[in-house]
Amino acid sequence: MAASRRLSRLAEQVTSAADLPDGPLWVALSGGADSAALGWVAVHAGRDVRAVHVHHGLPTSDVMERAARTIARRLGVELVVEKVTVPPGASWEGQARRVRYAVFRRVVGPGEWLCTGHTRDDQAETVLHHLLRGSGLDGLAGIPRRRPPFARPLLAVSRSQTRELATLAGLPWRDDPTNREDTHLRSRIRHRVLRVLADAYGPGVVDGLVRTAEVASAELEVLEDAAGRIRIEQAPGRVRIPVGELRAAPAAVAARVVRRAWKLLRDHHPPGRDTVEAILDVAHGKKTRVDLPEGVVASKEGVHLVLAAGGPAPAPPPVPLAIPGVTVWGRWRVEVELTAQPDLVPFGRHRLVAPHRRDVTAVVRAARPDDRIGIGAGTKPVSEALAEAGIPSGERPGWPVVEIDGQVVWIPGVRRAVWRPGGGDGYFSAVAFEESEWRTSAP
Fold it and tell me: What is the pLDDT of residue 104?
């Protein structure tokens, strides 16, 4: 009876503190107490709930999966189990988080939320972790309550409350054994650093760290507004920022812009101070290129600072040029028509006019390191022509050329060859259209 009364009181406290978003919910059900309590709160609030569990392939993962399955049955919710392989990396925790959130993004549908069981204690640990890394306001702001499609409804609830609620509700949760291993920094902060601080400072350590997150989050909104006025463009595996705008911005705003750009590539922990400063050194011309943590490279390309991760995407394979017709090669589209008497001096670098033969061999392909294009009485390297046209170095390996009968006769958007083929059956006119791979990122 006493347990029942305690459960009722605790459920009221946790439910009133929980911040469940509107709409269908997914609960990231790890098998631990925090996510079990979150599932219980969502179900008893009458919400449409499903759960997802990520099996990380560790020796202890089977135990946590069994706990998650049992909890889901007790709650009466559907459970999706996804098994993943965590790739090697400097930080196993960081790599595991990356693949875990990739699963979450895959299962959540339009209008749905993925809720995690992060608590007030997790917030304190995160702030302390980021403080030690020198992560700036991004880190001190801690875990955001909401960043669609993710929500953390229990950030105002303590870990002791979730453990007690899950226990009294009869949910068979388990502590993940990996959380007790000193090999993980998060575990050392939880079990050693915070205890030392609590002994020295008192029981208000967690509250102080959480208040820091609240203050930093409010101040971060102001910086975000200023940083959002500087354009960041995004392409697959790359982001870029206009160098002039970055140099003109106050130091704090410039650093904020760099952190925003970093998150577009690596959507997890914000970069440390040293990483931000190294990136800004490139923007200010102190360095031409720097290799950064997590496989990111910063370089200056023309008027942009570019952050790239994972190397350039492979260029599309060669494709025959349709004469007449439309040829699509990567983000390029080449439209060709036959004509009896075209303009023999085409205007613009995106147009080619040439004699046509029925047996002509024409191909659109990637530029090669040894390619050359005709200029007057000689030739020049295609790579040199691309550089002279201001094509960023990161884009040159995948830039198209048009080869006719074994000769590079056209670099769309750059230049045409001085080229006089013999005879023909008329002429063809080709126009190239490029769809930019860069998209402006929302502030």
Answer: 96
21, 70, 77, 388 from 331: Cα distances, Å: 39, 49, 44, 22
Q: Are residues 389 and 268 in the same domain?
A: no
CATH of the domain at 252: 3.30.465.60
Q: Do 41 and 132 reside in the same domain of the chain?
A: yes
Q: What is the mean pLDDT of residues 365-371?
A: 90
Give the contacts of 214 (CB within 8 A, at least 6 positions apart).
none
Q: Check: CB of residue 414 under 8 Å from CB of residue 349.
A: yes
Are 125 and 166 found together in one domain? yes
Domain count, the chain: 3
User: How far is the C-alpha of 213 from the C-alpha of 216, rounded, in Å?
Assistant: 5
Q: Is residue 221 part of a domain?
A: no
Distance CA(182)–CA(185), nearest Å, equals 7
Q: Considering the domain boundaries, does residue 196 fall inside one?
A: yes
CA-CA-CA-CA dihedral for 121, 122, 123, 127, to nearest 10: 110
Q: How far apart are CA 409 and CA 404, in angstroms?
A: 7
pLDDT tens, position by position, 127-149:
999 888 777 787 899 999 999 99
Specify the length of the chain in residues: 443
Query: What range does the domain containing 291 cover?
Result: 229-309
- 290 near 394, Cβ under 8 Å? no
| Sole residue written with tokens 């400097």 | 90
**Least confident among 56-70, 318-332, 337-351, 398-412:** 337-351
Q: What is the model's pLDDT at position 76?
A: 97
- The fraction of the chain above a pLDDT of 90, given in percent, is 56
| Best CA proximity match to 259, nearest among 144, 440, 138 | 138
